[in-house]
């Protein structure tokens, strides 16, 4: 698979092919989307450069992969589709991979971002909520107390929801 290739006609969900299946066994998630997050956009002539070269690139060096992550942009756009017109004041991402999608969603919406963390990582006053993770382990999730007030409309984002334990805890916190 050519990871730098962006299809000319991008069907909805085209970026899913960038996600790699689990090769490490049952203790790992079934799908790894991290390749999606660093997918490069290949520049074309109509974008001001030549194929594979950043516009104004120096001496024909290839465009750095971080210039325009089209896969992530299209994924965020698709994720936000059901929320078109919904009033959203703040985006919250669930520790840890939900931080990536959540921050991208917040940036796209021009909204603030709230990190909902596993216990022990925040140095400010927090609310805590116990939960059982996908592997059956008891854990605690925390959220800072100085950000959310009654009436604030929050969009919760996580990378995936397996058993729903972390999402239920995040909902209770909010």
TrEMBL record:
Q: How does it assemble?
A: Homodimer.
- GO biological process assignments: purine ribonucleoside salvage
Under Gene3D superfamilies, the record lists: 3.40.50.2020
- Identify the metabolic or biological route this protein is part of: Purine metabolism; AMP biosynthesis via salvage pathway; AMP from adenine: step 1/1
The similarity annotation says: Belongs to the purine/pyrimidine phosphoribosyltransferase family.
- Name the UniProt record assigns to this protein: adenine phosphoribosyltransferase
Cellular component, GO annotation: cytoplasm
Q: Known EC number(s)?
A: 2.4.2.7
Where is it localised? Cytoplasm
List keywords of the entry alphabetically.
Cytoplasm, Glycosyltransferase, Purine salvage, Transferase
- List the catalytic activities from the record: AMP + diphosphate = 5-phospho-alpha-D-ribose 1-diphosphate + adenine
- Provide the taxonomic classification: Eukaryota, Metazoa, Chordata, Craniata, Vertebrata
GO MF entry, a single one: adenine phosphoribosyltransferase activity
